[in-house]
Write a structure and sequence with these properties.
By secondary structure, the chain is of the alpha/beta class. The chain has 13 helices and 16 strands. Helix 4 packs parallel to helix 5. The radius of gyration is 37 Å and the shape is extended. Keywords: Coiled coil.
């Protein structure tokens, strides 16, 4: 047993008590009590001193808090921000605006929150025109639950609830419209950019709110610059009626028909109950209920209009009064999304010939994003619209979605010598006869002509056989950014679509680190596939692993690779310890972003459910 040191001056005759459980004798107990008297008295004295110090600390804390309460408002008076000139404060306010979207009506975000701080800030914010030159207006929603009567519930209860909801909604709308009116009133002579969104719940109260908003916006239509309207077609009649001279400064226009429904109305007893909405602008309702038609609008004649986005318009593009030759940016999506069900006229469908005729007239186009109508048929080889090339000499960015419709004939006639960014998406799976040596892809003819200048390529490799992928890489010698990601276009998916897709594998990745066949040894990095590649992103279906990624990065060492962003399932069987350290330890620094996904665990029913972690 270890020896215990005794600081109390215990006598040697008592040492045996420290190393055993032997009880002390009476004489020994008296000696121990005498030894404890002095230290216990000292401990009691120290405890009293600590209580006094604790009381003193509390008194000091109370005095300090009183001084803080006196100093705090005085410090606020001498705060540097109070002495900032108004012009500096205005610049700070402008930097508080959100990026990537228009400011909203949220009172907790800029610019509205800046008006709730103090009187001076409110004055400066209201006087800063740049804070109010853009606004996003999502209309409030009136949700009325379906009326039903429970046991013992009076019949009039449901109607009473509807009345209360509508009264509350009216109060909200009054405040909402007042806020928008005050916002727009602060722009002075500056330009106005806005976006309006109304979902369709088919209530006249919501339509009345939108009409009130349009009344405010139309008062300053000559100051419109960028306009984005997503609303039911029945509610945009006042926009359809706008004349070109009413919008002399409008440079971009986005139109999105969120619905083609008319408001519910009583129908005669003899009515056969036709289809509830108008298709293709062909009214199936009496004239007094006909929907406005964009093809009759003069708004497209705005003198400064150069950017146009059309979504779910469902009207024939050939009849639209658009001066295509003025456009530098064009987006056409979701057009005729019911065409494959047979409900829309054929002239609404956007197929390759229709798209070719439109783009052929867009001689100044610089950016384009277009999608074919789902179910559009493949054109005949001798179609008149495909007999001459589509010359787009200024096109630098092009995104194309063919859905499930063949588009090879389109890329055979497309001429875009200045194209720098190409995005291509499809839902057409490779056919059963598409073997590993099949290099067929609608892009191949186009890339042979113009692939040398493309420096950014976005594609989903799930729908490309490995040989077609390799053929594309060979035709892109100047590519700097390769992004493998699912489509960002809206599309209709069906059960079973995920079957038969082709993942991006380690073998595909190693192809990007190989020397081209027949090129000999690697010299100055120019014989490597995609020799100028700087960035690789892979967010599509893949079976990559740590080891495969490490081999790829090592193969590209010294060739200027700067960023790798990969999302893949973790290879638990063949992991690479400290993968990021391995890559960062190389001569050339590479930014590595890994998004690892766990493989799903499949358990047979007879084995029971998996245990929760």
């Amino acid at each position: 047993m270890s020896h215990y040191s005794v600081p109390l001056g215990i006598e040697p005759s008592l040492d045996h008590l420290l190393v055993s459980n032997t009880p002390p004798e009476d004489e020994e107990l008296d000696v121990l009590q005498d030894l404890l008297k002095e230290p216990k008295a000292e401990m009691d004295e120290l405890a009293l001193q600590m209580l006094e110090l604790d009381k003193l600390m509390k008194d000091l804390e109370a005095r300090r808090k009183k001084l803080q309460d006196r100093v705090k408002p005085l410090q606020a008076l001498v705060s540097p921000i109070r002495r900032l000139p108004a012009d500096i404060l205005q610049e700070i306010f402008v930097l508080c605006l959100p990026e990537g979207h228009y400011p909203t009506l949220d009172p907790l975000q800029a610019p509205l929150v800046l008006t709730h701080i103090c009187q001076r800030w409110r004055y400066v914010a209201n006087d800063t025109r740049r804070l109010w030159t853009a606004i996003h207006i999502p209309l409030p929603i009136l949700r009325i639950p379906s009326s039903h009567r429970g046991p013992g519930q009076p019949v009039h209860t449901a109607e009473d609830e509807k009345y209360k909801l509508k009264a509350k909604f009216t109060s909200v709308v009054d405040s909402f419209v007042g806020t928008v009116n005050a916002w727009v009133g602060r722009i002075g002579g500056c330009g106005l950019s806005f976006s309006v969104f109304q979902a369709d719940y088919q209530t006249p109260e919501e339509d009345a709110c939108l009409h009130a908003i349009f009344s405010i916006l139309l008062r300053c239509s000559k100051q419109w610059e960028h306009v984005d309207v997503a609303a039911p077609l029945r509610s945009v009649g006042r926009l359809v009626a706008i004349q070109p001279e009413d919008v002399p400064s409008m440079r971009s226009l986005t139109l999105w028909s969120t619905s083609r429904h008319s408001l519910p109305r009583p129908t005669p007893a003899s009515s056969s109950g036709g289809f509830p909405f108008v298709l293709g602008g062909q009214p199936s309702t009496p004239p007094e209920f006909a929907l406005p038609l964009w093809r009759e609008s003069k708004i497209f004649g705005a003198p400064q209009l150069e950017s146009l986005r059309l979504l779910c318009l469902d009207e024939p593009l050939s009849l639209m009064p658009i001066d295509w030759s003025k456009l530098t940016s064009l987006v056409i999506e979701k057009q005729g999304t019911l065409a494959h069900l047979g409900f829309l006229p054929n002239d609404i469908v956007i197929d390759v010939p229709v798209l070719a005729n439109v783009l052929r007239r867009c001689t100044r186009l610089e950016r384009a994003r277009v999608a074919l109508t789902p179910g559009a048929s493949e054109p005949l080889n001798n179609h008149e619209a495909l007999s001459t090339p589509i010359h787009l000499p200024n096109l630098t960015s092009f995104a194309f979605f063919e859905d499930r419709s063949p588009s090879a004939s389109f890329f055979r006639i497309l001429e875009a010598p200045c194209l720098r960014k190409l995005e291509f998406h499809t839902l057409r799976k490779p056919g059963p006869d598409s073997g590993h040596n099949n290099t067929s892809s609608p892009l191949i003819p186009f890339l042979r002509r113009h692939g040398q200048k493309i420096d950014e390529f976005v594609v989903d490799t799930q729908y490309m056989v490995p040989s077609a992928r390799a053929a594309c890489w060979e035709l892109l010698p100047g590519l700097k950014k390769l992004c493998l990601s699912p489509s960002t276009f809206s599309s209709v998916r069906y059960p079973g679509d995920e079957q038969g897709l082709l993942p991006f594998t380690n073998c595909d990745l190693q192809q990007l680190g190989m020397v081209r066949e027949g090129q000999g040894t690697l010299s100055a990095g120019r014989q490597m596939v995609l020799p100028q590649l700087k960035s690789l992103e892979c967010r599509t279906l893949s079976t990559l692993s740590d080891s495969g990624l490490l081999k790829f990065v090592k193969a590209r060492e010294g060739l200027g690779l700067q960023r790798v962003c990969v999302a893949y399932e973790k290879d638990w069987e063949d992991p690479v310890d400290n993968l990021e350290g391995e890559i960062h330890g190389m001569r050339q620094s590479v930014e590595l972003v890994l998004e690892k996904r766990c493989r799903p665990r499949f358990v047979q029913p007879r084995l029971g459910l998996p245990m929760r972690d």
